[in-house]
Description:
Rossmann fold; single chain
Amino acid sequence: LTARLKSVLIEVKDISQETTIFEQDINFNPSRIEEINGRLDTIYTLQQKHRVGTLEELLGVQNQLSNSLQSLLNSDEQIEKLELKIGKSVAELEKMATILSTNRAKSITVVEEQVTHTLAKVGMSNAKIKIEKVSSKELNKDGKDQITLLFSANTGQPPAPVAKVASGGELSRLMLAIKSILAKHTALPTLIFDEIDTGISGETAVRVGNVIGELEANMQVICITHLPQIAAKGDAHYFVYKNEESERTTTGIKRLRPAERIFAIAEMLSGKDPGVSALQNAQDLLASK
Length: 289
């Protein structure tokens, strides 16, 4: 035991001597400590600012910012390239706008005649339209032209902007005429008319229905209507209804069977609980489509 204690004592003295030597080698430099603390504070602040948790992530942010700075330093070159690209694009747009304007000028008279002809078919034999094209040097979303559709419903009435002079019924028929002409020159799989019958009834509604029926030869036509004269023209009749259940309103749609369709059109003619004459009128409408 004595021998072991002597050995431990020798070891302790040796460690003490090494510690003394190590202590003598350490230079306490308050300025260096302050500098290190300052850097650590800066690192912690930057980590919080950029929302990163490690030094490696912070160095990654530094690299990204460095690349961004380099891009800014080269911005003059990038701006020059972009300006060149913009110049080419503007030149191409100018070329396309000129072609479009030329084609419009050639087509205006034809479109005016076709729309006027279709308006006559829906009971507006005195109606006229005029397409006013004013060109400018400035490009816009429609090219370099400002297009205004002028309309006159009666003889002697000077054409004026549609929004100012057309009634609801006139506007409905005008839109039908324009859409029907567009459909003849554009490969459309489906054409949708949403209440195109606003403001019309009677014989005018029959004529509108006939024009819509002509379109069915080339495409599918979906027409949302409240008029029996138009509803009777379709190959199929879908009924849209609302259902209230458990304090909740839902909308449903169902395809009507032949008998249901007769009843629905009769209701459109005379209201709920249609009589025999209304049912007969509904059958006659369906038979004449």
